[in-house]
Structure formats: structure tokens, C-alpha cells
Amino acid sequence: MNKFAISVCAGAVAVLSSPAFSAIDQRTSHAMHEELVVMDTHLDTPALLVQPGFDIMHAHTYDSDFSQVDVPRMNEGGLDGGFWVIYTPQGPVTEDGFKSARDTALLRAMAIHNMVAANSDTFALATKPEDAEKIVADGKKIVYVSMENAYPLGEDLSLLETFYKMGLRMVGPVHFKNNQFGDSSTDPDGPQFDGLSPLGEALVKKANELGIILDGSHSSDALLEDMIELSKTPVILSHSGTKAVYDHPRNVDDALLKKLVASGGVIHVNAYSSYLKELPSDPERSKAFGVLMKQMGRMSDMTPEQVAAFKAQRKQIEMEHPAVKATFEDYMEHFLHILKVAGPKHTGVGADWDGGGGVETMMDVAALPKITARLLAEGYSKEDLADIWGNNALRLLQQAQDYAKSLKETTKE
After folding, report:
1. Is residue 16 within 8 Å of 377, Cβ to Cβ?
2. pLDDT along the chain (413 residues), means of 10
3. Radius of gyration of the chain from Cα atoms?
4. What are phi and psi of 343, to 5 degrees?
5. Model's pTM, two decimal places?
6. Which residues have C-beta within 8 Å of that of residue 222, sequence separation ≥ 6?
């Protein structure tokens, strides 16, 4: 059958606990989840790979160390891998700032490669769309590489080719603030370029030439529209939500979402609570975390004992000022609206694990089967789920690489 139709009598909140969603349905859902190639397009876990004392091969819990991805939990949640992020926070748009960020990004890229090399029976680097299925067939985890915030490239776009040779296959121009490539959706000073800067336009062209997917998450609406118009291949939103559910600058409205879809692009739904709904403010919590962050310095420079002390202080703050999280239903409200507007061939999962993502009852990757179960309960088919969990992102990578190949063939002629 094409659809797994399950009656939803008591509304979305009760669907998985209702009698209609029986034990056998849950077993069917879990079995199907295991059959799919399950990828997330925004894994911030490389930030933990340089953290003293963290071992991705060992089981952790969010409650113990606030991490959300490791191999035991990937196995439990059926996560086959995805795009592992080279992230660099936005710093000053200066030569010194560029150099510092470049070094950080190179070290982060090396950490990803070291993870693969040190655990070659578990992980494999992926650079082509067809690699994903082969890696899963070999019983390993998929490691595509992406870059969140192109700031480390400075004004030297030849560095994009350097990272490409290190496996980079997705790049987002900006993060929380504007930079040399264009405008962020969240810069408190507002837009600087009204979209892409001239250097940002050159970045789009260079990414197209190399066969790298362009990522519009964190970009201003104007920058995203510029990328959709200029890019020769479809654009991805690796971890974003919908303004129709919650009007936050990090989300996109239906009109822009339809433009993305019309161009062939894909949106992957994030699980960052404060982008999903309005949350109550807690000034005392913010103040306590502000003091802690000033004290900590860089995690990679700490000893394991210092890291443990930092996490103990964080646990204390969490106990005294617990965070209010969005719920799984809040997450699914975004997901289902986006599916309604964009369709299953233009929707995916990018929950922002180890980068602030996570909602109540889905705080790490072990809980990912909940998404499959819910989508089956909503009537989506196995084919739809295969697209959502991996095929859509791989299609974009195929289109990016096909275009880059066509340029080389034209040059030879």
C-alpha cells in the first residue's frame, strides 16, 4: 500500500497513545524506521569532538553531560548519520578575525576526519550521494561534512576549495550576525547588504562550481531569496522552521517557502525550542549562564577536570533555573505545516543536535523513531519517509555535483 492510514480520533496530541496506534503499529513503525536511510542535516556534534573527556563511541546522556549524539544513541534511534558541522562563531570582520576563524574551522574539520580515522569500523566519510547507501550497507555511519557560517573563509574563496578537498559538501554563508558574505536573520543591527554582498554572490558561484549545496538557514529572507535566484542548483535550509506557526526571524513564511520549493529546494525542520514557540524569559537563568560563560573560556583548552567542573556548574544552574522547552507537539506542528506547504519531497529533518536543539521527550537522537511513528500516523508512506529522512538532501547533492560536472565538461569542449 502507498499510505499507512491510521485514524487520528482524539487529535494530534493523543495519536501515539490512542488505541488506534496499537503495539503492532508501533512495531511496524520501528521496523520501517530501521529499514530507512535516516540522516539529519545539521549535527553540531563536532564541537564535542574537541572537548576533553568526550568519546563518541561511548554512551552518554543529556542529563549527565548535555550531549545528544553518540554511537550507542545513534544505534538506538536508528540514525545512520548525516551532515556533521564545521561551526565557527561570528567574530570581527577583520583579517585577524578571519585568520582565527580559519584556524578554528580547519581544526574542526580535522576533528571530523580524526573521528572517522580512529573509528573506521563505525564511521565512513561520504562525498557523493551514492556513498550514503553503500556506507549503511557496510554497517557504518554516514559522515558528510558541512560548514555553518562561511566567515572562516575570509575574503579568499580559494579556501572553499581547500575545505571541499577535506570533504565539505554544504555551506551556509552566515550565522547569528552579518558578515562579509551578507545579512543574518538575527543581527541586532539589522541588514547591511539587503541580502548577499558582492562577495556573497561570488561565494554562491564558487559553491556551484565545486558542487557544494548552499544552505540558507540563519540567512535573512533577502539573502535566501538572492541565493534561490542566483544559485544554479537548489538551496537547502538545513535547520529551520515556519513563521506560520511561530513568527521568529529564523523561520520562513509560506511565500518564501513556496519559492524555495518551486526552485527545487528543501527545508529540514529544526527542534530548537525558542524558534518553535514563544518561551517565558528567565532573567536569573540568563544572568547565571552569562557569568558561567565568561568563566569557562574555550572547552578545547580545558582539562577533563575543568570540563567536569563546568558541567557540574551548569547542572546546578539547570536545577535552580530549569529551562522551559517546547514540546514534541510544538515541533510536529512546524513539521506538519511545512509538509502541507512544501510536500514530502521538499521536507527533511535537521534538529540542531548538540547545537541547542531538542524538545520535551525528544532530547537526543535516541528518540528519532518518534518522528517516523508520528508521520506514519498522519498517513505518510514509506516512500515519503525515505524522501524526508535522506533522499531529499541526497537529491540536492546530486544536482549540485551534476552541475559542477557539466561545467568541467563544457570547459573540456
Report:
1. yes
2. 32 42 73 97 96 94 94 98 98 98 97 98 98 98 98 98 98 98 98 98 98 98 98 98 98 98 98 96 79 73 79 79 90 98 98 97 98 96 98 98 94 71
3. 21
4. 85, 160
5. 0.91
6. 183, 191, 194, 195
